Amino acid sequence: MGADTVAPGRAAALVDARLPVFQAGMGGIAGPCLVAAVAEAGGAGIIGLYKHNPDEIAALIAEAADLTDRPFGINLVPEVVSEPTLLDQVRGVTQAPAARPFVTFYGLPPAAAIRLARDAGRVVIVQTGSVFDAVEAVRRGAGAIVIQGHEAGGHHLSARGVLDLVAAVAERLPEIPLIAAGGISDANAAAMAAAAGADAVLAGTAFICATESAAHDHYRARVLTATGADQTVITDRFEIGWAGRRHRVLRNAVTEAATPPAPTFIGRTVLFGRPYPVPCGSAAVPTIHTSGRIDDMALYCGTGCDAVTAIEPAADIVRRLAAGVAQGRAARRPDARPAATAAIAAQS
């Protein structure tokens, strides 16, 4: 099935995307070029933010808006900033004159942040890792949910598999658009997520090696040569700047050391023209603006890495994943849920 014949579904339609594919808001990697390419292809591109101030947020939105007239989003991380700072970030998004991006939050945000975005007329999507948090996010005003399984690269919200989580949330919140995340790097994985009940998929690892990605070349080379999930590991070795959240990365000298290496400076990166040192153990991902011992940095990567085999345009990735979602929808039956659904819902 060609991408032109794939229906957007509820989640994509909510943000006015043509195809049921969301690109993860990977801080540093998902810059305006990648986001615009995904949006132009019909998907939902999302700018990755971190501790950016409102002026930086406005600049990134303006740059993306110069590259595409299609809708795109931004991603904020409530747990790495204070609530007042988060609210300032939301204001920075809603007051940016260049465009009207939808708002996504990684992790459950305070109700005030959701309310602020919704009052400005923005669609709000919350990424969670449990049925409980998904229900709470909707209660606070989220219009859609990203449910993330443990297969995902980057920081983790759950120790459960994405397919079981999708089925459990779809059963509990059938009226809410649901986006599956975790290990979804090819059409087959997208089809399985859609068959389990997802309206759309969100992919991160699949876009690291997109032509328009801002990932460092060495990082992309490591992803391209990763042949399976066993080359990734869930660890807490990259907590500087983002404490208390485990993450899945490609194995390297830091993850395999018997004890955590000392936080000595191993490189530097440049953000908005300003240089910043990168200590060993930093949560910062290596981008095209990073130099130093790249292989010892946080090389976030999901279990679907074996499906990433070439540097290719983001549009090709969007079309492939969208075709997979369409296949999964066609295979879906009302009673086709993993056997563990009831147990998961009861435990969440």
UniProtKB/TrEMBL annotation:
Kindly provide the name given to this protein in its UniProt entry: Nitronate monooxygenase
Asked whether the UniProt record includes Flavoprotein among its keywords, one would answer: yes
Task: Quote the InterPro entries the UniProt record gives.
Answer: Aldolase_TIM, NMO
Task: Identify the taxonomic lineage of the organism of origin.
Answer: Bacteria, Pseudomonadati, Pseudomonadota, Alphaproteobacteria, Geminicoccales
Kindly state which keywords UniProt assigns to this record, in alphabetical order: Flavoprotein, FMN, Oxidoreductase
